[in-house]
Automatic annotation (TrEMBL):
It comes from Flavivirga amylovorans. PANTHER family: MANNOSYL-D-GLYCERATE TRANSPORT/METABOLISM SYSTEM REPRESSOR MNGR-RELATED (PTHR44846), MANNOSYL-D-GLYCERATE TRANSPORT_METABOLISM SYSTEM REPRESSOR MNGR-RELATED (PTHR44846:SF1). SUPFAM superfamilies: Chorismate lyase-like, Winged helix' DNA-binding domain. It comes from the Bacteria. This is GntR family transcriptional regulator. It holds the Pfam family GntR. Residues 9-76 form the HTH gntR-type domain. The keyword Aminoacyl-tRNA synthetase does not apply. Keywords: DNA-binding, Transcription, Transcription regulation.
Amino acid sequence: MKKASEHKVPLYHKVYDYLLEKIKNEYIAGDFLPTQSEIAIQTETSLITVKRAIKELEAIGYLESKAGKGTIVRKPSVVDSHVGVSSWTDSISGLGSVPSTGWIKVKKRVPTSSTADKLKLKARERTVRIKRLRLIDDNPICLMNNEIPLSLVPGIHAKVIDKESLYNYLKDEYGLIAIRAEEEVRAREATEYEIEILQLKTPIVLVVRRLSFLSDDVPFELSSIIAPAESYIYKSQQINRTLDPKDLNKLLTKVS
């Protein structure tokens, strides 16, 4: 039988839980923690214990030590991980986070010539543009824009898009399924609007643009994600298309 002492929770866990609760409910990104001596007094622990707890929180992205300044609160990086063509909602949900929508705006319009060219539209053919502020655990994380030929989604408007995953909605309501996609990722300076909406501390954003295609290789959606460069990681897995179909299916099942 194990002794009671063997089940004792390490003391630094007490400080870890204490700080994590304050980070999630009281502090915001950019705030400085009290000094380590003050935290030791507040938690009735030693400086060594406080240093261990802070180190653990730094390792998962909640804190960052600044030499000569102190310890600053950070937002942990969001990892948007994709295998093949998948939706943002599915990717984020798969990591255990809770995605939601802050607001949604739907507008029918004649697109720019660049967008019309990418979607292979006829002159003056209209699209529907869907703009959303996406949240993770109720915090703003990215602006999302989707533009689709109106002829493919007749009757669409904000009130009927009641699912978090637009891809699932398009599949269920219109039978539209993305078979492949072309993507580009780049960083740029944020606009004043993006700084305000995304509550940016550093005015640099990561922009992910995607052009999605149906099974007949017809482009049907042009989308973009605009997210804080300092806290958003876009990750994808590449698969060898020359593999035997059976091996390819096994691989896709394994990584999905």
